[in-house]
Amino acid sequence: MKQFNVGIVGATGMVGQRFAVLLENHPWFKVTALAASPRSAGKTYAEAVGSRWAMGSPMPESMKNLIVLDATADIKKIAPLVDFVFCAVDMKKNEIRDLEERYAKEEIPVVSNNSAHRNTPDVPMLFPEINPEHTEIIKHQRERLGTKRGFISVKSNCSLQSYVPALHPLMEDFGVEKSLVCTYQAISGAGKTFETMPEIVDNIIPFIGGEEEKSEQEPLKIWGKVENGVIVNAQKPSFTAQCYRVPVADGHMAAVWVSFNKKPSKEEILKVWREYKGVPQELNLPSAPKQFLNYFEEDNRPQTKLERDLEKGMAVSLGRLREDSQYDYKFVCVSHNTIRGAAGGAVLTAELLAAKGFFD
User: Fold this and answer.
1) What are the structural domains of the chain?
2) Is 252 labeled as catalytic in the residue annotation?
3) What is the pLDDT of residues 160-180, one digit of tens each?
4) Which of 123, 127, 129, 161 could form a disulfide with 341 if both were Cys (CB 3.0 to 4.6 A apart)?
5) CA nearest 160: which of 131, 201, 122?
6) Residue from 211, 214, 186, 210 nearest 200 by CA
7) Do strands 29-36 and 69-70 pair parallel, antiparallel, or not at all (unpaired)?
8) CB–CB of 248/186 below 8 Å?
9) pLDDT digits (tens, 9 = 90+) for 332-359
10) Is 333 assigned a catalytic role?
11) Which residue among 117, 134, 168, 252 is the active-site one?
């Protein structure tokens, strides 16, 4: 695979920092541009982030002295420096939509962690192990934008990175009819640490703005079909969700109840989970976990703190599968929200796009 030059737009925020760490020694991608808000522009990356570095590992040496560019004013400066950009900015939704389209129209492909374009019908919301065929929509999006190279691809919300992979491989043979999901979400999902969110200590907050709607609706786009130049959402399964902010640094847990059209045995479910592989595993993409879905037999597993870093934070952990009195089955699952759920998932998406030639 050839080397690609990459920009991080929104480089000073928590997800931007996670991109920096994940891309430090990436075999295909080299960070050649960093961009952020006007107040960070003109400073070195180290100066712009200052004491706000929130990662467990140090800032990459290769990026410390890169001069941060203005994410909105310097698009024409960024264009010749990069083959594509990752985008994780903290702006209003309409501003993000406009910004990402401006990058695309400058012929810069955008792999976005933002939610602004998740409902745009010709923007693929890629989950590499689940819907790689949605890359087909990019040619239609390019026609609309009038671009040759430029396009926008988005990631789905971090809340559904554990339960959608668990349900997906069961759909073909058993037909998932409906699902109830309760998510227990880490504070890093809000861009916070315990220092910057003292109100979460010894506390649970039973509301995260917009999260329940995303948890119920986004899976239906992921499972949708490309028809007539747009992605048409799936009609089933029906979801209902509740989302809680819990005093955990990293890692989202979900408690899941599910009913099937054709109820499988517990052994059938476990076999499907154990054997499931997606295109990233088949292509051996650099960030792909070798074992995507990992089932734990112990009654008290998976645990967020113990399992979130499995396969460098890119695997999904499952456990407590058992029959239920109102649904067919219930189980729990865990994924790392800023790795698989945000920056790592976007890096894997970019690897899939690179392998399919979308950055050439």
Assistant:
1) 4-157+343-355 (3.40.50.720), 159-336 (3.30.360.10)
2) yes
3) 999 999 999 999 999 999 999
4) 161
5) 131
6) 186
7) parallel
8) yes
9) 999 999 999 999 999 999 999 999 999 9
10) no
11) 252
